[in-house]
Amino acid sequence: MKQGTTLQEMIWSLKGQEHVAKDYMLGAPRLSYEMAETLPPIETNSDALNGLLASIATDFDGQPVLGDLESPEAQMAPHLVIDGDRSLRPNRVFHQQMASQLGIPYQYYRKQHAAHPEDLCRDVNSWLQDTEVVNNTQRPVHGDRTVRTMGNTARAFLSSKYRRLDNFPLLLAVLDRLGGMGVDQDNILSCSITDRKMYLKLVTPRLEGDVGKGDIVQAGIEVTNSEVGQGSLSVRPLIYRLVCLNGAVMAAGGVKKTHIGASQIGDESNGWEIYSDETMKIADKAFFAQVGDVVEHTLSKEVFNMKLDQIRAANTDEITVEIPKAVEELASTYRLSETESDMVLNNFIASKNMTTWGMANAVTLTSQSEDVSYERATELEHIGGQIVEDILNG
User: Fold this and answer.
1) Does residue 202 share a domain with residue 145?
2) Tag placement on the chain: N or C end, fewer CB within 10 Å?
């Protein structure tokens, strides 16, 4: 299974995040795009927090931006400006959300950013300031927005109805419940934080079973959350194969929670910076207690046995078409790249297990490649689980 950071580093970075993360709820007309010198991630006294700040300061392709560009001309780029004085560098998530909410085709947005950034600033500002008449009153077209920031990075551009379910209290709630179940830090398989999501993957040796001769699997869970509108908070069953240290994440038996709630802003003309919200904290505490219940259920013997039965069925489901054809169809169905398809083919042949379970493991083994990002590795683990579950659907 692909490794990210250590659990302790993730805890330290998330705890330190509260000192460098700020949210703004305000009307779109109070925002603007302006050309400015590229802002590098801020430096703190914590290596773990510095790592988090670097991981969320990404370019269009998701790569970290260090700010040490070679020429002065290259250092100028569109920045988000709040109320005319707070300048922030948008990351890839913010760019995508800004383009989407303003109705700008993303490929066009990217090209303008690279070739004609001043024109992009002009266009964005025009749309941000756009108004319409509603009930004989001139109102902003785009209304209220939540802007999430961390350090010098604008990391999300969201609706005012977006409900913050942050990573640190979620992680503490999950770890607290796991501790009561006898699952400790030694059972953490992998964890990571990207500019899109937090990931936590763990296993419990108290629940294991045979898929076939010498093929032992253990029960686990994957917990993911996005603070920036890139997916639901989810808890899903994970099956961990000891023979090759692969993990397949299953969809059925898990729970998702979206981040949509009532609008969290009043008068749209008077936004404010959020420092604390005791009402939301109380509501979140109750919600995270429910997440703990879901964690316990997902790691139950009942759910594990259901998944084990599915895997055993997949291990007897022989693939009858020619191997290259089977992998080609798989790549088309699950949108694997040519490189990934080649790796799956090699893994599948080497496994000598010509079943659906063998194919699923060929995919999850591909996730361990050095050339695969953590996010893509997780997607491949999900595909491995989906391959097993899909045999029930014919």
Assistant:
1) no
2) C
